[in-house]
């Protein structure tokens, strides 16, 4: 069961990562302005926020499996829509619908995984889930860039759409629902229940960590492909470069280093990861040499590896089974908000790639200082 959930997580993130190196150039090819490109890149995540919050309520009410299947089918349909857009406005609409669908399936998958995790090895379990995201981060950008170059951008969407459709069928056949009517009767849907999850100090740190991680990824998705294109390199190289951080993260997750997630406080791991990401973005903004760019992505991979399992484990640690869907819905809403804010800021400012990357580094450093201040002053215990 757990291993099948890991496979689902790989697939759930594949559509997002496969578009990282192609969506900004695709929007540019349709005639989108700098600001509109930022909106198009960020629209998926903006809509994703709504999907996450809705999914959080539905997962705890109707069960994990139903929402997961609905999300997979809906995303499969939306991916086909990309192949038929001819204007930036149409692309913006498809991104909106795609984001809503994606917002349903990811919280459901992680709520399932959280239900099957053990307290003593929860950090390691979420490290493996991070490895799944890392696998998507490796396969996705390289796949999107290479298929675009060889077969055309439409085939990226056709292939992944078919993959989501097949996965939905397998989920219906293989995955057993761990939800019961008794649990539904215990679950209350009110504003106070949601505010409770927004007020818990450990969860606030998890939300900040998720927001900061995806803010930088949103900036990378926008700025790095444009930086590589301006240097005369092919879009395929952009995909390979963005995939490299996933390799580093996976090694960190699957090697004995994954034991650190159950030995070191989660918030400390988040701060260390944020500092690595800050350094990565500074290097990306200052240098053009390919070798140095790969070093920067190596640092980004370490930062990703430190942050992702730690913040997801925090969510599981501080939510019970009857509110876990809602907790992950809020968590991934902050994930999505990060991408929206990151891509929108650099798009609205119309900054060159190097300046945009440096802005991302500055924001990440500020957020790391906020988390550190919260640990010392506010505290993180219940």
UniProtKB/TrEMBL annotation:
- Keyword annotations: Membrane, Transmembrane, Transmembrane helix, Transport
Q: How does it sit in the membrane?
A: Multi-pass membrane protein
Transmembrane intervals: 34-55, 67-85, 91-113, 125-149, 155-176, 197-223, 235-257, 269-287, 293-316, 328-349, 355-375
Q: Which domain of life is it from?
A: Bacteria
List the CDD domains: MFS_MdtG_SLC18_like
Signal peptide per UniProt: none
- Transport: is it a keyword of this entry? yes
Enumerate the Pfam families for this protein: MFS_1, PUCC
Q: Which GO terms describe its molecular function?
A: transmembrane transporter activity
Q: Is rRNA-binding found in the keyword set?
A: no
**Which family is this sequence assigned to?**
Belongs to the major facilitator superfamily. TCR/Tet family.
Q: What is this protein called?
A: MFS transporter
């Amino acid at each position: 069961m757990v291993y099948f959930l890991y496979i689902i997580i790989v697939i759930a993130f594949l559509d997002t990562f496969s578009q990282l190196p192609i969506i900004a150039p695709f929007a540019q090819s349709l005639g989108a302005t700098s600001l509109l490109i930022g909106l198009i890149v960020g629209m998926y995540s903006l809509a994703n926020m709504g999907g996450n919050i809705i999914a959080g309520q539905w997962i705890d009410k109707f069960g994990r499996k139903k929402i997961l299947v609905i999300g997979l089918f809906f995303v499969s349909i939306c991916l086909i829509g990309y192949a038929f857009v001819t204007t930036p406005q149409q692309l913006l609409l498809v991104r909106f619908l795609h984001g809503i669908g994606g917002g349903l399936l990811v919280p459901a998958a992680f709520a399932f995984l959280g239900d099957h995790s053990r307290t003593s090895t929860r950090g390691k379990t979420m490290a493996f889930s991070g490895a799944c995201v890392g696998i998507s981060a490796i396969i996705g950008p390289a796949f999107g860039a290479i298929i675009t170059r060889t077969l055309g951008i439409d085939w990226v969407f056709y292939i992944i759409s078919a993959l989501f459709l097949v996965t939905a069928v397998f989920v219906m056949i293989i995955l057993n629902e761990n939800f019961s009517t008794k649990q539904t009767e215990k679950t209350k849907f009110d504003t106070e229940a949601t505010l409770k999850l927004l007020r818990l100090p450990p969860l606030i740190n998890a939300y900040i960590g998720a927001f900061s991680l995806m803010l930088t990824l949103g900036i990378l998705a926008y700025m790095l492909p444009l930086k590589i294109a301006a240097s005369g390199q092919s879009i395929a190289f952009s995909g390979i470069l963005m995939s490299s951080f996933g390799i580093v993260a996976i090694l960190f997750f699957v090697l004995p280093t994954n034991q650190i997630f159950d030995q070191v406080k989660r918030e400390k791991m988040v701060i260390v990861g944020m500092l690595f990401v800050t350094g990565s973005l500074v290097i990306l903004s200052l240098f053009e040499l390919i070798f140095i760019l790969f070093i920067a992505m190596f640092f980004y991979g370490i930062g990703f590896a430190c942050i992702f399992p730690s913040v997801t484990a925090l969510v599981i640690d501080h939510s019970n089974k009857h509110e876990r869907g809602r907790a992950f819905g809020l968590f991934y809403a902050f994930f999505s908000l990060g991408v929206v804010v990151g891509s929108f800021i650099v798009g609205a400012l119309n900054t060159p790639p190097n300046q945009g990357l440096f802005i991302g580094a500055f924001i990440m450093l500020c957020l790391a200082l906020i988390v550190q201040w919260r640990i010392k002053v506010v505290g993180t215990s219940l």
